[in-house]
Amino acid sequence: MAKPIEVWMSPPGPNPWKVIIVLEELGIPYEIKSIRFEDIKKSPFIDVNPNGRAPAIIDPNTNLTLWESGAIILYLIEQYDSQKKLTFESLREKNLLNQWLMFQMSGQGPYFGQCGWFNVLHPEKLPSAIERYSNEVKRVLGVLEQSLRGKQWLVGDKCTYADLAFVTWNDRMDMVLGVPDSKPLQEFPNVEAWHNRMVGRESFRKAMAVREKMMDDQGLMPNGMPKGVNNMAEYEDKMKREEGN
Fold this sequence. Notes:
The structure is a single chain. Helices cover about 55% and strands about 5% of the residues. It is of the alpha+beta class.
C-alpha cells in the first residue's frame, strides 16, 4: 500500500484544492500539512517550497518533493492514474488535456487572482485595475463557454484533470467579481452547467468540507481574511502586531 503523500498548503487559496480533488478522485492516500498564510514565507514551508507558494507535496513513495499545482497534477496523473480515470491514452487527447491545463495556469488562475485582489483585498479601489481584470475574467470564461458548446467536458467524453483544474477558481466567482453567489456564472450557461457537474462530484464536496473546517480552525472567513479583518492592509497590520508581541 502506498504511503500517504504530504500536501503542504495554506487553506484559503484555490490552488491547493485542485491537488486535493485529484487525490480524492484517484483514491491516493494523503496527509495535509496546514500552514497559516502569514507563515507561508517562513520555515518549515520554504524548506519544502523556496518560492513560498502553496501547494507543495512530498511523496515518500518516490522520494520526490514538488511544487506548482499544475506540475503536481501532471505528476499524480503520470505516476498514479494507471487506469486512465482522469486522462486518455491517445496522443491527441493527452496533448489537448495539457493545453487546457496550461490555459488554466496561465489564464484563469492569474487573472482570477488579480481580479479578486483588486475587487476585494486591495485596500484602495482602483477602477482601472478592477475593470481590466474583470474584463479578463470574462474573456477567459468566454473562451470556455465557446469551447464547451455542445459538450459536457473539455476533452473527450469524461471528466478529466483538465476540467477539475478549473473548478476551484470558478467556485470563487462571487468573491472575484463581487456578484451574488447564487448566480455567479449566469452569463455563461455552458460554463455554469459544466461547473455544476463538477461541484456535484464527491471529490469536490469532500475537499470543500475539509477546507471549511481548516478555515474555521484558523479563524478565517471564506475570502481568506481573518474574521473581523476587511482588507489586506488590515491583515498586514495584524500580522505585524502579532510578530511584535
